[in-house]
Give the backbone structure.
Amino acid sequence: MRCMTENKLACFAEFIGSMFLIMAAVSPIILFVEVFESHIGVALIANAIAVSWVLCALIEIFLPISGAHFNPVVTLAKMLESGVKNFGLSKAAVYIFCQTAGGIAGIILTHMMFFEEKRGILFISHVRRSGAVYFSEVLGTFILVFVILMLGHKKVKSSRASIIVAFLVGGQVMATSSTMFSNPQVTFARFFTSSVAGIRPIDGIIFIAMQIAGALLAVAAYKIFAFKSSEIK
């Protein structure tokens, strides 16, 4: 009974965390571009700050409950790190479902907040993202997943881990040509916004493939580092 309750809490944490993460990723773009009529560069900086601050709080709150993944490729990496049998394929599937559902809920709530500007709840994005930004997604996802795995390996305290990951994501938003989506559920949710934060579904599918590739490379690199560090000890 206690195990079932904990699993439900973990799934709810992944849903809520993913919901607020996508709100932090899209809302500043709408606010600064469509409400304040700011330059897109200013909106990007606001976006990086909002995502990093919100993500830091979410990790700090939900890390003890669900591991604070909020990202299907993080869940995939954690499963590969600990082993499918140990983590559980069904657990991973439920996590990913809750993350994706949370992302869609986040997009809906974001559009509701800015209904006067958007005049709708869900849209299909026409924002084109192609070319070198695909490679950017491999790099961005690689560094994100690798850092998360290494923090777990080194047993870094949650308060420090939340700050490190938040700073990394905020910095990479401004340091990658794709503005670091690095998250399939965030990418999927952005299919359904008409703001400049969106992405065309055809480009988004490639983004997700690149994110999975980056995550798998990160797992491979992590296993090398973890093995070498154990040898040194």
